[in-house]
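Lay summary. Proteins are chains of building blocks that fold into shapes, and those shapes determine what they do. In this project we predict the shape from the chain. Here is one chain we studied, written as its sequence of building blocks.
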Amino acid sequence: MDTMTLWHITGWEFAALAFAALLVGFSKTAVSGANTVSLAVFAAVLPARASTGILLPILIAGDVLAVLTYRRHAHWPTLWRLFPAVAAGVVLGTVFLVWADDEIVRTSIGAILLLMAGVTVWRRRTAEKGAEPDSVATRAGRVKARSYGVLGGFTTMVANAGGPVMSMYLLSAGFRKLGFLGTSAFFFLIVNVSKVPFSAGLGLIDGSSLLLDAALVIFVVPGAVLGKWAVDRINQRLFEQLVIAATVVGGLQLLLR
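And here is the predicted shape, written in a compact code that computers can read:
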């Protein structure tokens, strides 16, 4: 990793990274998918590949805070359905990173996010109200879980952009606000921790990146507190609209950057 690039950043650049870290905390406890903005900020300030390794420990810190906040609301049957497919996606993403350049990665993920946002909006307009999370027990639910799981594992490995993918899946599965946040909290804590050996093996995490993480991770805490305060004041419909909007913004950022 290019340590000269990491440490020769201006005060304004550090402020931008600090804001992005704060937004990670907010996204983990309020509007999942909003941290695609953080992804864009990190990639703009730091080298694109290096930014994914630096952002990962910050995401894990946010995941820990989210689990502590929403641990009682996780839906474990959904998680067990997703993990095998996600593992396959992480392996595919690792292979993809070996040869793909930044432009190919950004374009592919941006297109996937926009496509799934559109599909989710269409499905929610045509689906019956009150769908339950245990719909994953049906054959169609299992196929959907595997499809989203592979895509989620792939996108989270190549660009830490799995949040919007899983947000679209959980919304389409009929999760309410707290179940959504509790399930996604455990999902991303487990998945992001499992990514650490892969990222280290690719040279995306090293001593220098962890030192920068240590300076930024403290900003995750106020973001998480702000998110917990805000989520109690957001109704279900607005919550879903914000999640979908954050996904669309993230997809456009990846395509246009």
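What the prediction tells us: Confidence is low (pLDDT under 50) at residues 1-5, 128-134.
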